[in-house]
Amino acid sequence: MNEKQEGFGILDGELPGLKDENNRRDGHQRIELFLSCRKLRNRDLLSLSDPQIKVFAEVGGKIKFVGETEIIQDNLNPDFTTTFTMDYIFEVKQPLRFEIIDIDSKDGKFDPLGEVHTTLGDIMGSRNQVAILDIKLNNKPAGKLIIRAEIIDGSPSYVNMEFQGEKIKNIAGIFSKINPFFSLARAIGENSTVKVYQSEVIRKSTDPKWKRFEISMQTLCNNDQHRPIIIEVSSQKGMSRKVIGECITTIHQIQKENKREFVLTDPKSKDKKVGKIKLNYYSVLQKPTFLEYLRSGIQLNVMIAIDFTQSNGNPKSMNSLHAIRKDGVLNDYQKAIQGVCEILLCYDYDKKVPIFGFGGKPQGATDVHHCFSLTGSESEPYADGLDGIMEVYKNALETTKLSGPTYFKYILKRGMDYAFEEKIKGSQVYTILLILTDGMIHDMQPTIDGLVDCAELPLSVIIVGVGNEDFTNMKKLDADEEPLCNSRGVKMKRDLVQFVPFNDFKGDREKLAEEVLAEVPTQFLEYMKSQSKLPEAKSDFDFTKLITQTTLRDASPVNAIFRHSTPGELDTRLSHGFSINVNKVSGTEPLEEFKDDIVPEEKKGTHSIIKLNTSPERLEKHHSTLDGKQRGLNMREGEYRHSLDSSRHSDDPDRINGRRISNGSSEDNIFDPRNLAN
User: Fold this and answer.
1) What pTM did the predictor assign?
2) Taking Cα atoms as reference points, which of 419, 409, 393 lies closest to residue 306?
């Protein structure tokens, strides 16, 4: 039975908008973490380590204890049943620390086995939401930590409704008519309600027909089909509002009993009817969440564009926005790149980022370029990871002459080309163009025209304003108040631009990242909706096979024990619990290849035990040279079985070379795993 642990800062509402399910934003979702370890160090002399994991999270700059797993006795490859429930927030870094310890006694004494530092974003951005991370002890490899994340709350339900009033009482008098609107409220307890929706006002009508609207089932009734919903019809006159009538229903009545007509009664006199309200349209639909798209394999690819215009100031001057300081303090461009990219790169598998400049003269150029690769190669404009981005930017400042003016359309065109190429290929890639600039742009209308066209592409544009210049035009591009309109009169179909002035978050790159990235999940979901594109169905991957392959096939040395058993067979059992059966080949001695690695021989009964310190890759490479036939490979529930002679493979998955095995070892295996060396 799994034990769930929760209750650290992120769940306790220290980050806004998490505790109230109704106010959750796109990119905020509850997830559950499952933990396993492989190839832990053994700290015990007469047995194996008894591992436990302690989990910590950084919230608001403070380290908080999340919880701990159970203790698993004598196991270097534990699969813990204790799970951890957390709130995932796309735009927040959410650092985590996992401490793996060996419990020595009941009094709580322990030996450290290593630790892992990561972020929740790194975990959620991993393929299949499975992160396989190196455990480090004193900066040396000490095994693997496998973290698997699963979404707890799936696709939310949304309700589409359209109401119409009929013969609503005219309380405006003989010479006038009411201006009706309605509101919905859900019951909280026995005597309280909370308003969840209010319609537009229809002027001068006793038979109003209101616009169709959409509301989440969570907001409407807290996903409780029997929770009372109060429909209240009122009239507005100037600044005053007066309730005309109300009625009560439930989603169960609407959905199961097909009730569509409700009688309004005077709230002061329940027996007094004041009209009817009809539900003309009702439907329920599921909306995929951002995490469900991530789970289907969606990647977020980043493209960076940096302003190299003269208004930034000479990079050699400490007053320049591009100044590279010898004391290591980052300039504002570097801080913005770091804050945004250390989150976005979690969702980019290869971490290769195209990085461009605009408004400058690259090395060897006499004219200003408005989109040039900062790597110096137009065919290979990619930087590797965050460190690579910082290095490419720093090097470009040494070779690029600042110039001007500031044009966005060329950079935007390059971003559109990337996004269009991914769309044509049908790949699961959504591009985010990060533009960092110090002020006014000089091609406002062409930029608007390009942004309107971007609506049909898998692309978002983030603009960070650096410095103290006039950012009025940037705010217009954000288009939060009114959609952009191109020179042909076409309005932007979806919101895809976010502008943030860096100085509003001076010195706090994490707060900047929160603000900059907060709209990305919503923009992404709006694009997917506009394309009628649902998350691609993925067949369930073999989690056991994944962690077996990854942990077994790394290059770190492992101890193996060879035991001569029946003639013509060599039984190999790796110290981390996997079993390999290898056939000898006539005239070849398998151990000869590894004679320099052999530890002095031990005797146990009639069996000869030889310890061998080597790596699985070296073993497998040698084995593959022993026989030219196709090797048989069967992976099942953590077992690794290898037979060089495929013609002798049995169809029985629990039988190798005609011999029945259990838990990855042969029937006559005399070894207790606790006797295996580390």
Assistant:
1) 0.66
2) 393
CB proximity list for 529: less than 8 A, separation 6 or greater? none
Q: Which CATH superfamily is domain 298-530 in?
A: von Willebrand factor, type A domain (3.40.50.410)
For 630-672, what is each residue's pLDDT tens digit?
233 232 223 233 322 333 333 333 332 333 323 333 333 322 3
Q: Which residues pair with 611 in a beta bridge?
A: 561, 599
Is residue 81 a contact partner of residue 108, using CB atoms and an 8 Å limit? no
Question: E strands of 95-228, at which residues?
Answer: 95-103, 110-119, 130-137, 140-151, 157-166, 180-188, 192-198, 213-216
Helix (H) or strand (E) holding 295: helix 290-295
pLDDT in tens, 78-118: 999 999 999 999 999 999 999 999 987 766 688 999 999 99
Dihedrals phi, psi of 385, to nearest 5 degrees: 65, -175
Question: Of 97, 85, 92, which is closest to residue 28 (Cα–Cα)?
Answer: 92
pLDDT band, very low/low/confident/very high, at 547 (cuts 50, 70, 90) = low
Residue ranges matching CATH 3.40.50.410 in the chain? 298-530
User: CATH 2.60.40.150 in the chain, residues?
Assistant: 3-151, 157-286
**Distance, CA of 143 to CA of 98 (rounded, Å):** 13
Nearest-angstrom CA–CA distance, 163 and 464: 43
Question: Residue 530, Cβ neighbours under 10 Å: how many?
Answer: 12
Q: Which CATH architecture has domain 157-286?
A: Sandwich (2.60)
Please give the CATH superfamily to which domain 3-151 belongs.
C2 domain (2.60.40.150)
Nearest to 122 by CA among 311, 345, 287: 345
Name the one residue in this structure whose structure tokens are 């690579």.
Answer: 388
Give how far Cα 441 sits from Cα of 312, 434, 465, 491, Å: 13, 15, 11, 21
Q: In this structure, what are the phi and psi dihedrals at residue 505, rounded to the nearest 5 degrees? A: -130, 35
Contacts of residue 129, defined as CB under 8 A and 6 or more positions apart, other chains included, come to 123, 148, 149, 150, 294, 295
Rounded to an integer, what distance in angstroms lies between the CA atom of residue 227 and that of residue 484?
41
Q: Within 10 A of 299 (CB to CB), how many other CB atoms are there?
A: 17
